[in-house]
Structure formats: structure tokens, C-alpha cells
Amino acid sequence: MAHNNQNHTKRASFILAVAVNLYAVIATYLYKNFQINLMDYATPIILWTVGIILTCAIVQRYFEIFFAFIDIDFSFGKQIISNSAIQEPLIEKSVTEELSVCKETTIIEETPFVEEPTVNKNVIHTFVDNYEERLAEVEREKAAKQKEILNAIHEYTTFVMAEYFTKEDLAALHENIEYLTHGQTDLYKPIRSKSDNPIKSIDLRHFAWNIGERLNLKLEDRAKFIHILFPHELKDATLEYLAKNLRTQDSCRIPLDIPKNGDYHFNCMRKTDA
Predict the structure, then answer these.
(1) Which of 10, 132, 224, 273 has the highest Cβ tally under 10 A?
(2) Residue 129 DSSP label
(3) In this predicted model, what pLDDT tens digit does every residue of 142-199 receive, in sequence order?
(4) Rounded to an integer, what distance in angstroms lies between the CA atom of residue 248 and that of residue 123?
(5) Nearest-5° angle of CA 218, CA 220, CA 222?
(6) Distance (Å, whole) CA 46 – CA 20
(7) Residue 258 and residue 266: Cα distance in Å, rounded?
(8) Which of 72-86, 100-114, 256-270 shows the lowest mean pLDDT across its residues?
(9) Residue 136 CB neighbour total at 10 angstroms
């Protein structure tokens, strides 16, 4: 009720404010242009309007209070009748609902408790105690295998290169192979084959491919190896050309030696041993 009264008051105030503004604008315009003073004509109208509004507001407020008082009496009597009329049915309904709930209640079977197996961390720890030892063993096996491969390469180098180099140059070639194995390419030392028995480009390419295949080297690394070591024999060959033509088949004295099934031994050395 109070909220509705506030809305009516706001609406009436807004209408009056608009009316006053319009009146002021019209009165100013008429007086300025036609010298007509509206106060002489509008004052009685304004007074009558205000009086009517106030009278209506007072009468409306009186009737609202009167009807509100009557409504409270009627609702009070209605509440007494309803409580006395439906009290017993509500009690019967509640008893019936409780009985139905009791009938529909089912017995829930308890699931047997299964104990989860516990993880014995001490046992697991025992199995990984030798982790470091196993890693060290794997590294030792790799080092031993690498040493065997390197020994085979050195034996092969002496076997196929001895006729082309002096003893000093052959020793330098073995030293360069060590640098190749350990990735120390900046330590390469150039050498030159004998002037009366020079080695051909095709033989150097096959030699680089054969030893590089045992060391699992990239073709570029194999080509760089012979390109730096033999600048005189390969003066007309570029690094790109050597990398693309390491396995070129042509007339040569050092043939390609392709290992089978991961075997690092050289076929020519097997024939010698036999």
C-alpha cells in the first residue's frame, strides 16, 4: 500500500512540475510579445485546481484506511474457519504418508569390504638399488664396443693405406681418425699421399664412407674429413660434391665395404685372416 502511494505521489509531482514549466514558458512568451499577463487569468484556475487535488487526496486516504480495516476483520474470520475445518484431514494425511514411507523402505544389503593391497615400497626400492650400477655397466659395454670398432678401423686403415703414405703420414692419418671419432674436427692435420703412388679421389671417398659407416657419421662429416685431410688430392672437389658421391661406383683400389646386420668388421680383413 505504501509503495503504491509513493508511485502516485511521484506521478502527480511530475505532472505538476511539467505543468508549471509549460505555464512559465507560455506566460513569458505572451508577456514579452503581446504584453498579456496570464497571472490575472490563471490565478483563480490554479487555486481551484490545487484545492480539488488536495480534497481528492484527503478523501482517497480516508477510504484506503477504511477498506484496509474491513479487510483485516474478514481475513481473520476466514482464517479461524479454515483452521477448524482442515485440521483433522491434515492429521490423517500425515499419518497415511508416514505409513506409506515405512512400507516402501527396502533393506540395503551391505557390500563386503575388500581390503586394497598395500604397496610394499621396501620391495620396490630393493629392485632399483642397482640402477646406478646397471647404467655404469651399460656405459662400460658401449665404451668397450666403441674401442673394438675403433681398433678395427685402425687395422683397416693400415691395411688399405700403407702403400699410399709414408710412415709419418700414416701415423698422422691414424691421429686424425681419433679426432674424427671424438668430434674434434678443429684438430685435423692435412697430409699428402706419395708422389710416385698418389691415391685417387674415388678411393678416398670409399675410405671415408667405409669408416664413417662403422662410426654412424653423417655424410657431411665424412666428406669434411677427407676434404680437410687431403687438400692436394681433392683440390678440384667441393664439399657438397664429396658428400653426394661417397658411394660412387667406379674403377678403384679401395672398394665399398658395406657392413651387414650391424657388424663393424671389414670384409677385406676377414679374407686376410682366413
Answers:
(1) 224
(2) T
(3) 999 999 999 999 999 999 999 999 999 999 999 999 999 999 999 999 999 999 999 9
(4) 59
(5) 75
(6) 10
(7) 8
(8) 72-86
(9) 11
